[in-house]
Amino acid sequence: MSIRRAMLTRRALTAVAITTGLVLTVAGCGGGGDEKPTSEKKSSNTKTDGESKGRGQPQKPAEGSTLAEVKGESGLTLKVTSAKRDDGGFLTVEGTVTNGSGKAWVAASWRGDERELTKNGGSMAGASLVDAAGKKKYLILRDTQGRCLCTRFTGGVLSGQSVDWFAQFPAPPEGTTKVDFQVGAMPPAPIKISEGE
What is the pLDDT along the chain (197 residues), one digit of tens a residue? Predict the structure, then answer.
């Protein structure tokens, strides 16, 4: 009899605790009257969305700013539009590749020769930076599973199509401002490094 009474008491206390928690949760979501007007809400939300989209992903390069442009590999054109040093000790290089070959291009020769990089498929994984003055070569960064921190050209690039790309490298020393960007059989593209914002 006492066990049954104890069980009923526990159930009642549990129900009261759950009900109290729900009431407090609903009261906390009540919106205390300090709401912003609709127009302010939209502008602040838009800003927040834009900021979150920019983190961890490369932003589209500004139109007309080209650091280097090289042509080669059966009608491909590679443009470098940005090379920015990040606070975390990385260098992010961005640009576009245009396929003028007359057929689809799969970037197989751009994925690199290292066995670990072959899992990246058609990508910028084989890209590198060469610091001629410092006599150093910087390879693309990758995660612990061997995936490059770069663009993968999933499905290839159709003839006449231009595609944005990015690639991340360890940043050269602060005094280094010029490097050559190389990928596949494309000619080296001399670029100037700028400081991140």
Answer: 556 555 556 665 555 455 555 444 444 444 444 444 444 444 434 333 333 333 344 444 445 588 999 998 788 999 999 999 988 899 999 999 999 988 998 888 888 777 777 778 888 989 999 999 989 999 999 888 888 899 988 888 999 999 999 999 999 998 899 999 999 889 999 999 987 65
Number of independent structural domains in the chain = 1
The token pair at 63 is 């139109």
Give the CATH number, domain containing residue 160: 2.60.40.10
- Structural domain range at position 127: 68-195
Distance in angstroms (rounded) separating the CA atoms of residues 109 and 10: 68
101 within domain boundaries = yes
